[in-house]
Amino acid sequence: MNSKVQVLTVAGNDCDGSAGMPADLHAFFISGVYGMGILTAAVAGNSYEISDQVLMPTEFIDHQFAALKKDFKIAATKTGMLGTSAVIKCFHRNFAPESFGKLVVDPVIITKHGNFLLDNEAYDDFVKLIIPMADVITPNAFEAQTLSGVEIESRESMMTSAKRLQELGAKNVIVKGKHENPTQEKVEDLVLKADGSYQWLSMPYVSTERLNGTGDVFSAVITAEIAKGNDLFTAAEIAKNVVYDSISKPIIVGHRHGPINLWNAHSK
Questions:
Q1: C-alpha to C-alpha distance for 175 and 118, rounded to whole angstroms
Q2: Do the domain assignments include residue 22?
Q3: Which domain does 207 fall in, by range?
Q4: What are the boundaries of the signal sequence (predicted)?
């Protein structure tokens, strides 16, 4: 019998394949696990823009959870775009660790340009309901700043922000460093475990516009590696390497903000 580690993403679908559920499933594939997806939304977009989106009815999301719970042995789950208060509450009532494993939360709440993706009610519900469920939360610097109220400008402030997220209920926290300054030489991420131990991950800065899906892939690889039994430090290091390998040799797909090159990571 060929038993395969099974993992799940609860996310939106980007029709151009660069981010959201497609990126998660690509990352699961190169990580050697079997990936499933519960669809929360569908986005019409390309490398230039997002032009429209449709949210899934919560009753349909309920049915997706029920269908998977009945049949599969899921070792770990990650969240992506939840979008609304109704979907956040739907996830909260359906998710159970005994059915869906460890939970990795990728907090898709704000863009790198500071645009909120959740209204006030949904944001409050995300903080109150989703963060305390997280075995691991993986905010980028902008998300970490928003959730913690701590301006991130140094290693010390990243640590303060991560500890604040633990106070909000997350067990383990990974704060991803900023990568917006073309003069910076490296990008550093902080991995803070529930027991207080921590690790810094560092990779050279890569100047490229082809970055779509980096956050999705990072958290998806962590989900896959945790499902396979790796500890968080190992999982985060593998994910960091995958992202670096994927952006360091861009592929020309689309015209502007294109997808990352998972083929390069997969060939390592």
A1: 20
A2: yes
A3: 6-266
A4: none
pTM surpassing 0.90? yes
Residue with more model confidence, 175 or 183: 175
Comparing CA positions, the residue from 203, 255, 214, 209 lying closest to residue 24 is: 214
**Quick one: which of 177, 119, 127 has its CA closest to 152?**
177
Report whether pLDDT(112) > 70. no
Residue 147 maps to which CATH number? 3.40.1190.20
Mean pLDDT of the 223-230 span: 98
Residue 35 lies in a domain: yes
**228 found inside a domain:** yes
Number of domains within the chain: 1
- For residue 23, give Cα distances in angstroms to 60, 239, 265: 22, 13, 13
Tell me the average pLDDT of the chain: 93
Amino acid in position 76: A
- Most confident range, picked from 199-203, 246-250, 260-264: 199-203
Strand-pair category, 186-192 with 172-175: antiparallel
The strand ranges marked E within the chain are 6-14, 34-45, 50-55, 74-79, 102-105, 136-137, 172-175, 186-192, 198-204
The residue type at 217: V
Q: Which two tokens stand for residue 233?
A: 């430090």
Mean pLDDT of 115-120: 81
Nearest-angstrom CA–CA distance, 34 and 221: 12
| CA gap 169, 175 in Å, rounded | 15
The pLDDT, as a whole number, for residue 182 is 74
3-state secondary structure of 209: coil
CA pair distance 46, 10, nearest whole angstrom:
21
Q: Which of 122-131, 160-169, 203-212 has the lowest mean pLDDT?
A: 203-212
Rounded to 5°, angle at Cα 228 from 39 and 88: 30
